[in-house]
């Protein structure tokens, strides 16, 4: 009986090995716990973090990784700075502010912050009603315009862009401090002239607005160039024709890249394995999470506000020929 049990155990182990049981990266390294704060559990970023950490946990033998809900980018950056978590995601503008101790991070510069990869873009989407007659950012002067919540990052985008366009923000517009969903409703019924929406495409609020008599504005090259002179995180972004109802042409706008970051406290080998494994599994991650679809390692080192990469990430990008 004992011999039969032993034979069954060996047979079962062999069967498991042949039926696709997950294999972790080889090598010896002390165990590392990766806590990965994202955003609220109902948001898209939470699902992105869960997909990435599950992939790391499955494929790297010395890593135990898990995502967790948080209050979003600013909270994530504070958790990394305080050593409460090890890896996270935020827009590159917030990462820049944390690194240099600016704005909400004043007096708390985190010079240990390091980038693993730039991921996907969050584009600015400027929606106006056709009856408003607005055809440019300058044309928003004197109009009813939704700028999101007071003090929010989206309102900050309005401030930056309208100032670059030559307006005195907020005095030159009739600002409405309302959420995206409310703005879409008001655009449809014509009680506001326009709204600023910052989100991945396609955004539900933009789809709702453009299903009625609304359109997207271009953010022209000169305004983006002006912005980049003061804010190195801005990039040009094209919203392809057909992304939204009644959108017959490409729309150029500005965008800020979502950036995965860590700290110098995390060692080089660990970050090398995190980076390598991320890009070796990016296709399957893209199938699970549309935000990650089509991402490339080549683009991961671009549009990251000139922030420093972690030594482990640099090692991987040099290995595949992206960096010299």
Order of helices and strands: HEHEHEHEEHEHEHEHEEHHHH
- Could you give the count of β-strands? 10
Task: Name the shape in a single word.
Answer: elongated
Helix content: 25-40%
Counting helices, strands and paired strands, the structural category is alpha/beta
How far apart are the termini?
62 Å
Strand content: 15-25%
Largest sheet: 8 strands, mixed
Q: What would you report as the Rg, rounded to the nearest angstrom?
A: 23 Å
List the total number of helices: 12
Name the poorly predicted regions.
1-23
Mean pLDDT: 90
Can you give a write-up of this model?
This protein is of the alpha/beta class and 324 residues long. The chain has twelve helices and ten strands. It has helices at residues 2-18, 44-59, 73-81, 92-100, 153-164, 180-189, 204-210, 221-230, 268-280, 282-288, 297-300, 311-319; strands spanning 32-37, 63-68, 88-91, 113-129, 144-146, 174-176, 194-198, 214-216, 234-239, 251-263. The strands form two sheets. Strands 3, 4, 5, 6, 7, 8, 9 and 10 form an eight-stranded mixed beta sheet that branches. A two-stranded parallel ribbon has the order 1-2. The longest helix has 17 residues, at 2-18. The chain starts with a helix and ends in a 5-residue tail after the last helix. Residues 1-23 have low confidence and may be disordered.
């Amino acid at each position: 009986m004992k011999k039969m049990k032993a034979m069954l155990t060996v047979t079962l182990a062999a069967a498991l090995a042949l039926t696709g049981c997950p294999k972790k990266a080889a090598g010896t390294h002390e165990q590392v716990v990766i806590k990965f704060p994202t955003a609220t559990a109902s948001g898209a970023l939470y699902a992105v973090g869960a997909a990435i950490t599950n992939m790391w946990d499955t494929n790297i033998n010395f890593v135990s990784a898990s995502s967790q809900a948080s209050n979003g980018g600013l909270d994530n950056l504070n958790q990394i700075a305080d050593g409460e978590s090890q890896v996270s995601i935020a827009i590159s503008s917030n990462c820049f502010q944390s690194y240099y101790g600016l704005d909400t991070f004043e007096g708390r510069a985190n010079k240990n912050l390091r980038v693993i990869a730039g991921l996907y873009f969050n584009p600015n989407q400027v929606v106006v009603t056709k009856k408003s007659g607005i055809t440019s950012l300058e044309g928003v002067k004197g109009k009813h315009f939704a700028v999101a919540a007071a003090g929010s990052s989206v309102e900050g985008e309005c401030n930056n862009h309208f100032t670059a366009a030559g307006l005195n923000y907020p005095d030159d517009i009739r600002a409405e401090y309302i959420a995206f969903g409310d703005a879409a409703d008001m655009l449809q019924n014509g009680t506001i002239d326009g709204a600023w929406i910052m989100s991945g495409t396609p955004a539900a609020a933009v789809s709702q607005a453009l299903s009625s008599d609304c359109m997207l504005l271009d953010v022209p090259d000169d305004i983006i160039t002006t912005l980049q002179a003061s804010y190195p995180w801005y990039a040009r972004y094209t919203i392809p024709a057909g992304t939204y109802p009644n959108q017959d042409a490409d729309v150029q706008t500005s965008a800020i890249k979502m950036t995965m970051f860590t700290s110098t406290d995390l060692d080089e080998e660990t970050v090398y394995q995190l980076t390598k494994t991320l890009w070796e599994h990016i296709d399957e991650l893209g199938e699970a999470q549309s935000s990650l679809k089509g991402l490339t390692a080549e683009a991961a080192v671009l549009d990251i506000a000139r922030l420093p990469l972690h030594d482990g990430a640099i090692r991987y990008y040099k290995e595949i020929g992206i960096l010299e």
